[in-house]
Specification:
The complex is a heterodimer of chains A (about 375) and B (about 200). Helix content of chain A is about 35%, strand content about 15%. Chain A is of the alpha/beta class. Chain A has an eight-stranded mixed β-sheet, with helices on both faces. A two-stranded antiparallel ribbon of chain A has the order 2-3. In chain A, strands 6-7 form a two-stranded antiparallel sheet. In chain A, helix 3 runs antiparallel to helix 4, helix 3 runs antiparallel to helix 7 (about 275-285) and helix 4 crosses helix 6 (about 255-270). Chain B has about 200 residues and is of the alpha/beta class. The longest helix of chain B has 13 residues, at about 5-15. Chain B starts with a helix and ends with a strand. The chains are: A alpha/beta (about 375), B alpha/beta (about 200).
């Protein structure tokens, strides 16, 4: 259902007010790359911010005139007549600060040194992202978002919006996310980081000057990540024990189809993604804990939220399991916030949040239809 | 919504003060909560397992949490609600006794409504050798979700056994109040209860 937003183009916003990070580091200026779809209404009340996950970026929907095959990463969700309906909403996608798709990040040139930031780019947190996103909202004249929407790490940003700017977001859609990572999840991130950090081509993060990239490490990190984004069943269905050759070769070459698939995914990713950005993203995931300043008590942390919430999880997602989404619901119930929760039966694991699924889409559509009535009333 | 549903809803609404907090278990498409929101300005949540109903609740502007009632109410804190309602769902719950206890853990008071299996038409059906199929019990024996059907007497005995104190009861047939021989002449019962001492 729905059509494409069609040809889109990215825009660039430059900020020269220094941004003080949660770590205490300061970035004197930065740029954010973003795209918008649909039209902002007269009272600027119909804006939706899309926050991306680990490997996402500003190109959420549509395609580029000169690259018709470069379709936005959430094009099935965002567009005219789609669940996030650009006929009703003004939708903004951005590349987060620290990213590698055009916003200022470790691979950008530091104007003070004339060299890439590399290892000197500050470790960034979800809180810092929301701060930079709020400045983009200011720039676009948006006082209050109709909704902030995100999956996975994007869901954490959406939650943080409701805590950092309770009066600037009416609704939060947290999809396949968590209020904070568990030890197991941090462990996965640490293995991924170690793959990158121990790659001989990493050069302490300043590999740009050496004309190399830590491809092997990044590739391993992605392979590991990819396993955790799929469900056991989805992998079994897709690959099973299928071999590429007729029989066992009794060696260490690629034999099983799953091995071939993971290597392909790893290679593809390592060819375009920046290893430093990967490190930053995983660290932002690990650090996020809204209850850190509240003695670990999420009930207290969410006391300041004023938004309405839609929380969605997927049954076979074990990286951000339904249990993690319930940890979001409980403090909201405790604080008597409006919240709805849908647990979508899906076979695709964590990746489900990016896939077209009739019930999942119906839930998002029904919720945003209400939001649309509310903001246009 | 039929007039009979309205009567059931009205009976429940009559017990609920304005602005109360309500948890509606097995809330379906959210019509009871929506009714209570309009009639009594309640705030609250529904719990429902069906995918289709989740979408309807959201479209109805009702807060809904997707959950299996038989898995308990662990997302909800002790005494979080003024009322916990189980409307026309009791007979379809598997772990009925623990659920009633859970209702009185998260709510100060409980309200249940259920089809009375002691209603004379049901008795007659069984007497004539068939499982009853009616407006209140619209299922065939082989496709019914109803695993714990009971009569008024059964429910009241249950309450006595498990220290649940019934504070009010309404019995109705076709939306009309039944005063005489309720366990025989009433098709639907609504009970209000709290923890016994």
């Amino acid at each position: 259902m729905g059509t494409s937003v069609g040809i889109v183009s990215a825009q660039r916003a430059s900020f020269d007010t220094p941004l003080v990070f949660r770590s205490g580091a300061v970035l004197s200026g930065y740029q954010l790359l973003y795209e918008t779809y649909g039209a902002l209404n007269a009272d600027k009340s119909n804006a939706i911010l899309i926050c991306h996950a680990l490997s996402g970026h500003h190109h959420v929907a549509g395609f580029y005139a000169d690259e018709p095959k470069n379709i936005g990463w959430w094009d099935n969700m965002v567009g005219p007549g789609k669940p996030i309906d650009t006929d009703k909403f003004f939708v903004i996608g951005l590349n987060n600060l620290g990213g590698c798709h055009g916003s200022t990040g470790p691979s950008s040139i530091n104007p003070e040194t004339g060299k890439p930031y590399g290892a000197s780019f500050p470790v960034i947190t979800v809180e810092d992202w929301v701060e930079s996103q709020a400045r983009l909202a200011d720039r676009l004249g948006i006082g209050c978002f109709a909704a902030v929407v995100g999956g996975s790490l994007g869901g954490m940003q959406a939650l943080q919006w409701s805590l950092a700017y309770p009066d600037r977001v009416r609704h939060v859609l947290s999809i396949a996310s968590a209020p904070r990572l568990t030890a197991q999840n941090i462990a996965f991130n640490d293995v991924a980081r170690n793959a990158i950090l121990t790659d001989p081509d990493f050069h302490g993060g300043d590999y740009y000057q050496h004309g190399v990239v830590p491809t092997r490490g990044l590739r391993l990190a992605r392979m590991l990540g990819h396993i955790t984004y799929l469900s056991d069943d989805a992998m079994a269905d897709k690959f099973g024990r299928e071999l590429r050759t007729e029989q066992y070769n009794y060696g260490y070459e690629v034999e099983f189809q799953i091995e071939s698939y993971l290597r392909y995914q790893g290679d593809k990713f390592a060819a375009y993604f920046d290893a430093n950005t990967y490190l930053l993203m995983t660290k932002a995931l690990d650090y996020f804990d809204p209850a850190q300043d509240c003695g670990g008590d999420l009930n207290r942390a969410f006391a300041r939220a004023k938004a309405g919430f839609l929380v969605i999880s997927f049954t076979t997602d074990w990286r951000f399991s339904p249990q993690r989404s319930r940890e979001i619901i409980r403090p909201l119930l405790h604080n008597k916030r409006p919240v709805s929760y849908a647990e979508i039966t899906s076979t695709h694991g964590h990746d489900s949040f990016l896939m077209e699924h009739p019930h999942y889409f119906d839930v998002v559509r029904a919720y945003l239809d209400r939001v649309s009535c509310e903001v246009s009333a | 919504m039929s007039a009979t549903d309205r009567a059931d809803f009205a009976a429940i609404a009559a017990w609920i003060p304005r602005g109360a907090s309500v948890l509606d278990l097995g809330c379906g498409d959210g019509s009871l909560l929506r009714y209570l929101k309009e009639a009594r300005a309640v705030r609250g949540y529904g719990v429902e397992i069906s995918d289709l109903d989740i979408v309807s609740c959201i479209a109805n502007g009702v807060n809904v949490i997707q959950n299996d009632l038989d898995a308990g109410l662990s997302d909800f804190e002790n005494g979080a609600f003024d009322f916990v309602i189980l409307s026309q769902t009791l007979q379809a719950t598997r772990h009925t006794e623990p659920l009633i206890q859970e209702m009185l853990r998260v709510g100060r008071e409980g309200i249940v409504s259920f089809p009375n299996f002691g209603y004379w038409r049901s008795r007659l059906d069984v007497l004539l050798g068939n499982m009853p199929v009616s407006r209140e019990l619209p299922y065939q024996w082989y496709d019914t979700p109803n695993v714990h059907l009971c009569t008024l007497n059964d429910f009241e005995n249950f309450c006595r056994t498990y220290c649940v104190s019934v504070t009010a009861r309404r019995v109705m047939t076709g939306g009309r109040e039944v005063g005489w021989l309720p366990n025989l002449l009433g098709s639907t019962a609504v009970y209000r209860f709290q923890r016994g001492v």
